[in-house]
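Hi, here's the filled form for the chain we discussed.

Project: internal
Contact: R.S.
Residues: 484
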Amino acid sequence: MTSSDALATGTFSMKSPYGRRAVTLSVAAAVGGFLFGFDSSVINGAVKSIEADYTKEPILTGFVVAVALLGCAVGAILAGALSDRYGRLRVMFLGAIMFLVSSIGSALTFSVPDLIVWRVIGGIGIGIASVIAPAYIAEVAPRQIRGSLASLQQLAITLGIFTALLSNAVLAGIAGSADNVLWWGLDAWRWMFLIGVVPAAVYGFLSFTMPESPRYLLARGRNDEARAIFQRLVPAADLDKTMNELIAGIENDRKNKSASLRGKALGLQPIVWIGIILSVFQQFVGINVIFYYSTTLWQAVGFDESNALLVSVITSVTNVVVTLVAIFLVDRVGRKPILLTGSVLMALSLGTMALAFSFAEGSGQDVSLPGAWGPVALVAANLFVVGFGASWGPLVWVLLGEIFPTRIRGKALGVAAGAQWIANFLVSWTFPELSAWSLPLTYGMYALFAALSFVFVLWKIPETKGMELEQTETLFVRKPTQKA
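And the returned structure, exactly as it came back:
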């Protein structure tokens, strides 16, 4: 069977020359996800030191941790319009520069206000990367493997989380504690931030070596350049058809250039609300509590600093492994069944954590779990990571790259990602105060959102497996109960 035949019959795979090229470009774009994950967890090892040296109060600590997410929301909202105007690669480079500057500034911080500024700057860079990566991957990936390639964004996020937690553990181990001086007169927790310079530089370098999105080039009238890129991504027999379909779609978009996100449903089109609600549910289950505060949490239930950091690293490894499982299954099983299964597992594990912490003794930093409840909470937390990492983590990014009509994709993806960052901010900011008030109720609330996410997917999300981007719009116009 030729590559063209394979594509036509749906057996096209990552092993074909075209698939390998698409994988290479998708991996490069997904480095933005690595920055996202790294930034999400690098603060983990520094939280207690920042509170001891600067913030002093849990509510201010939570704000410093979470304030980067407001920058992420701004970056995500701006990224769509900027990338449509200047191209995906230039905006990638801008995001890399902002994260690099933030890493250096955070490492050299001398007060709460300046740390907030550096965190916001880095957040804007991460927000940009969170939109550009899935958009670029969706635009270069063949439909038969688009789900797997779009899932690389989440895999990169999990690898970024793992790298941040591992480097935190190593640096604290070398220094003896995150508060101890390591090299050049800088405390270990400051080096945790400074390490971020490396992935930022790699991301910036890649923005000069990757080809521009062919869809963007066609939209700008640079057809010859787009064709040259597609020649390496699409079998020759399908090249003209692919080009003609995209050009026709772009011409149709120009006729509808006044199209906006506005609609009758509370001011936005229903499809935009679906993207927003998916994004909010992804965060309201509380996943980033595990990666922002896990070290502090496990210290509170009996682990010393080194063991708490080690447990956090183990959790991040689990996250990487189950994301690989999701990548393997997403184009075989489909999006909807995986999301539903993940919602069930998250609800059960979060409910178990709520039950375990209902037996906690003490309060604040002196809380402890008696008997077997400590191990039960640890196992439940890791099962929660399994449920999230194999479903809602990667698949929300897949769906956000698929569900929006071409004419509003950039804007809608930016709004949905912005909503995700705002939801992330609310969860991250409120957790220290909520946990001091009642951990059982806090985890019980996250469990409720996980249960509601099951209902939402069952009710509103149709299957998009194996469909062209241009076809998915019709699924969300008609009732999702119709057979896709």
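Let me know if anything looks off before we file it.
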